[in-house]
Design a protein that fits this description.
InterPro entries: Gfo/Idh/MocA-like_OxRdtase_N (IPR000683), Gfo/Idh/MocA_domain (IPR050984), GFO_IDH_MocA-like_dom (IPR055170), NAD(P)-bd_dom_sf (IPR036291). By secondary structure, the protein is of the alpha/beta class. About 35% of the residues lie in helices and about 30% in strands. The chain folds into 2 domains: about 120 residues, NAD(P)-binding Rossmann-like Domain (Rossmann fold, 3-Layer(aba) Sandwich); about 180 residues, Dihydrodipicolinate Reductase, domain 2. The radius of gyration is 20 Å and the shape is globular.
């Protein structure tokens, strides 16, 4: 069974990354794309060699030939269209963050259970084999006990003030857009949930008062913390460092996969520094295959919908902390 995907929106992330990833996957094909403007959908379909174009989201989710839907809409539309798609019997891959808050995410999870369909959050980096390699290094004891994690994801898009990232009521801001990456990575590596968040942010009047830069600490058990920063008005970085008692693991490009030497990571111990080479793979294709195989076999996802709910609880705490300038227990 080949999974027939429909894509709701002609967003850049869909056209440049996720659609090519599904096309390279072993389990799926992109069958249809929808826009609220039929001309836009038709143009994208022609450009990306997609068989069917729709001029409404409703028409796409009612197409009985479509098995699964990818949703890269602005954040405030995730819940509405994910639930509509699931009620129509479609499996859903929803762009991160899955919702505006944990309450919305819980409603989406409930809808997925009721409909008996897969709901997944699109954190593509988690499916790259380097994270399995990193887990094996940690389990081997080479870096000793974990003492801390530091993550950073920043870029500068501040001049594009019309961008959806700069609409507060649409779920704009750097925590929603890129802060979720180090947050989800720390939870994945620690296999645990943080107990509290403390975040300081720069809110820009020029950008509808969204957080353009944020820095924070998440408190895990045993005195371990994630320290992180994220931003949309800063020089580009997407790094992660895992610090242990006997060494550390450094990922110069932790979330973006370039399919070249930048994807490699480094193991630093008292024996010296070792560059760990990783396979050159398309992590969007790997994401599509993990979800596709779950749809085909009924096996549980490695990161099911309840993981997305937990991640949103952390993000809720981070946003509250930044806005109210206080430590927030989770």
């Amino acid at each position: 069974m080949t999974i027939k995907w429909g894509v709701i929106s002609t967003a850049n992330i869909a056209k440049k990354a996720v659609i090519p990833g599904i096309k390279q996957s072993k389990t799926g094909e992109v069958y249809a794309i929808a826009s609220r403007n039929l001309d836009h959908a038709t143009e994208a379909a022609k450009e990306l060699e997609i068989p069917v174009a729709y001029g409404s989201y409703e028409a796409l989710i009612q197409d009985s030939k479509i098995d699964a839907v990818y949703i890269p809409l602005p954040n405030h539309l995730h819940k509405e269209w994910a639930i509509k798609a699931m009620e129509a019997g479609k499996h859903v891959l929803c762009e991160k963050p899955i919702a505006l808050d944990a309450k919305e995410a819980e409603e989406m999870e409930t809808a997925s259970r009721k409909a008996g369909v897969v709901l997944a959050e699109a954190f593509m980096y988690r499916y790259h084999p380097r994270y399995q390699m990193i887990e094996e290094i940690i389990q081997s004891g080479e870096i000793g006990e974990i003492r801390g994690i530091h993550g950073a994801f920043t870029f500068n898009n501040a001049a594009a003030k019309e961008n959806v990232r700069y609409r507060k009521d649409w779920g704009g801001g750097s925590l929603y857009d890129v802060g979720v990456y180090p947050i989800s990575a720390a939870r994945m590596i620690m296999k645990a949930e943080p107990q509290a968040a403390t975040v300081h942010a720069f809110f820009s009047e020029e950008h509808d008062h969204v957080d353009m830069m944020a820095a924070g600490i998440l408190e895990f058990d045993n005195g371990i913390a994630l320290s992180f920063d994220c931003g949309m008005w800063a020089a580009s970085r997407n790094r992660l460092e895992i610090i242990g008692t006997e060494g550390r693991i450094e990922l110069p490009s932790a979330f973006v996969a370039n399919q070249n030497e930048q994807d490699h990571f480094y193991l630093h111990t008292n024996k010296g520094t070792k560059e760990i080479e990783v396979p050159h793979v398309n992590q969007y294709a790997l994401q599509a295959d993990v979800i596709g195989k779950s749809i085909q076999s009924g096996e549980a996802l490695p990161y099911p919908a309840d993981d997305a709910v937990l991640n949103m609880k952390v993000l809720d705490a981070c946003l509250t902390s930044a806005e109210e300038r206080r430590r927030v227990e989770i």
